[in-house]
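Ticket 4471: requesting a sanity check on a complex prediction with flavin-adenine dinucleotide. Repro inputs:
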Amino acid sequence: MKYPNSYYNHSLDPHIDHPSLEAVVEADVCIIGGGLAGLTCALELAINGHKVVVLEAYKMAWGASGRNGGIVFPGFAQGQDYLEQKLGLTAAKNLFDLSLEGVDIVRQNIQQYNLQSAAKTSGILSVIRYNDAANMQQYCQNMQVKYGYQLDYIDQHNMSNYTATDKYYQANMDKQAFHFHPLNYCLAIAQQIIKHGGQMFEQSKVINMSLGGAEKTIITSHGRVKAKHVVLCGGGYSGQVFGKLQKSILPVATYVITTQKLGALAQQLIKTSAAIIDDRRAADYYRLIDDDRILWGGRITAKTAEPQKLAQLMQADMCHIYPELAQAKIEFAWSGLMAYARHRMPYIGKFNSKTPSHNVWVCSAFGGHGMNTAPLGGRLIAEAIADGSTRYQIFNNFKLQWNGGVFGPMAAQTTYLGMKIADWYKETSSRNK
Ligand SMILES: Cc1cc2nc3c(=O)[nH]c(=O)nc-3n(C[C@H](O)[C@H](O)[C@H](O)COP(=O)(O)OP(=O)(O)OC[C@H]3O[C@@H](n4cnc5c(N)ncnc54)[C@H](O)[C@@H]3O)c2cc1C
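Returned structure tokens:
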């Protein structure tokens, strides 16, 4: 299976194809899933001298990691308010700091390995589509006081310096966050894993596993891996072979389009090189790429099949903010699956299957916030395996939760519709004030 027909695939750097697993291979650690979680875990282990094997069902970063919006910013899919309420401010701050470490992992790898084709552009502008200056200012202040994190408040008067739409009221600018080309980044990380002695196999879907004993056996159609540790990193694509983990994940689909080159119009509409994201639960986010194309992402659905007329649906969302783009040609439209836990926090830690299975680790469920949290998860599991670090244990607060079976996706879709209605109400009532 090839990469989806996306902008990223069409702007891909030369890269290595990896073989499929055709033999019995022994390793210290077998990582299942070649997304950002699995790749980061593999790189950090390989650097530490561990014999690591990555098994990817299709191509490295074929899943969410190679098709996402490319926005790297601190935090989790779940908000800090929830974390403060559940765990108290100290633990919420510890989690926030870890999420920042996730941002730094990506930033440092780009620098250290001189990844030109994944070069980052600084800045995330978070906008609101309703009038609430006081809350936005308070939010920026809270982030500074409670978390020591700087966000610059932007009032309504100054919004026109950033965008040509009148749909937004206030915003904050996060200058430390950035956006980049996620597929080029992941493939460069895969290359580094090879350089550090790791083994990578593509078109090698895991179809069975024996996890009970000290030596685990991981089986693909044409080969097997025998390893002391196994790390489960299948994300939203985790199938039946992941057992209880699959039943604890809601795969949620989300979508991206990119426009043709728009010339001067692109920067007349989007006047900032920062990515823009709104605060709705089903957020729109977008950014300039190649200076004059727009990459636009948004919508979520529990239906994993790609909708018909995806490009038109997404273009309609874009034109709601920028009607000037009605005639813009959409060059690529694609979808991807994110893995959500019901508590919207990642699963990072020991895999507590009913059969006691030591040295089986889970690193998944990063939701729509995986560009920092998946690398963080990869690092925490790598250091737990390498030197017994217990830093991952803060995530023991977020255990595997049943996804609701057949009712899970229905509940998710209903919740999503409810959230959309709540967003609509908030915006409409603010305009009528
Ligand atoms: C369209 C889209 C836009 C997004 N935008 C952003 C964004 O801008 N910022 C942000 O922070 N997050 C974003 N996200 C979320 C982010 O991309 C994910 O949270 C993150 O990439 C998850 O990484 P992962 O490694 O857990 O999973 P994935 O990247 O999905 O990787 C899992 C891999 O496991 C493989 N696999 C599954 N089963 C098997 C098996 N049996 N055997 C072998 N391999 C298997 C799959 O093929 C897949 O390649 C977005 C997601 C999508 C889909």
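Notes from triage: The chain has a mean pLDDT of 93. Leaving this open until the requester confirms.
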